[in-house]
Amino acid sequence: MEDQLLSLEHQALVTKLCTDLSLLLSEYNFANLYLFRKTHEYRLIETMGSHFCIYGTSQSGHTFLMPLFHPKSWDSCIELAGEYNVDYLFPIAETWALEAASQGHFLSFSEDDSDYLYDAEVIRTYRGRHLDGQRNLVRGFLSSHTVDVYPLNSNTLPKARVIIEKWSQKKPDTDRINDVDACIEGAERTAELGLDGWVYEVDGTPAGLHLGGPLTATVYMYHFSKASPEFRGLSTFMHQDVAKRVDPKYRILNWEQDLGIEGLRHAKRSYHPQALATKGRLGVKSRNML
After folding, report:
1. What's the pLDDT tens digit per position in 235-246?
2. Taking the mean position of all CA atoms in its chain, how far away is CA 278?
3. If you average pLDDT over every residue of the chain, what do you get?
4. Fewest Cβ atoms closer than 10 Å to its Cβ: which of 9, 98, 113, 271?
């Protein structure tokens, strides 16, 4: 079996494999995997059966195998994972989890892992009484400030770095430091990674940055959204503005998981997601929940 650290050389292969699977989970995206390759020590594995997997380490220190193919036999997949002595298979999409359960395998789920999915048209318009707060925030923000939006490129990259640096100073914990490093590299490699980027200036001050890109043919993913808390309503405006800028063919927006961060969970739920994309863990060493 071949085993290599994940690199840009694997982009075409991993992108094709993820595209073919067309899963709604944020992990099944090369840019996401690549930008967090150091955090999770991602490696690409080719098995004897010409299947590919991602080997990784969770922030809690558990090891996992992420299949880049649709397993037909979960017994065989568990056996494969056992050869790498990992703790579990992850993430298992809901449809796959039902198949694994039907084959007699127990899966565990953590709410912290679930991706938030939104109707793109709802975010573009903030329609509905349940989003009155968002509409009012945007209205108040625009009535008080002047906003200029620029595509992220070599000319605006210095502004993006300023925004990320300001954000990192307010979020000094280890998890956010990892996030900052990934965001900086994402901003520097938008073209290589197939990402879209926009820089937001408020009253002439660099204040917001968004990075995103396609997940499937109809799903667009928000990878990073950094907004200065100095300007109330900026983040809400950015979410809507990006939804308006992306191709209308993307009917669903994936805002990734909340990682169990209470403030982030509250913020994402306040936009009333259409659904949560759950991610199962299938234990390899034991059937205990991990």
Report:
1. 999 999 999 999
2. 13
3. 93
4. 9
Q: What is the DSSP string of 29-41?
A: SHHHHHHTHHHHT
User: What does the CA dihedral 210, 211, 213, 219 come to, rounded to 10 degrees?
Assistant: -40
How many domains does the chain contain in total?
2
Listed in order, strand segments (DSSP E) in the chain are 2-5, 43-46, 52-57, 63-67, 88-92, 107-109, 115-119, 147-151, 196-202, 205-214, 219-227, 252-254, 275-277, 280-283
Residues 22 and 96 in one domain: yes
Indicate whether 210 belongs to any domain.
yes
Whether residue 290 has pLDDT greater than 50: no
Pairing mode, strands 63-67 and 88-92 = parallel
Do 99 and 119 fall into the same domain? no
CATH number for the domain spanning 172: value is 3.40.630.30
Q: From its phi and psi, is residue 243 left (phi > 0), alpha (psi between -120 and 50) or beta?
A: alpha
Query: Token pair 């395998």 is at which residue?
Result: 105
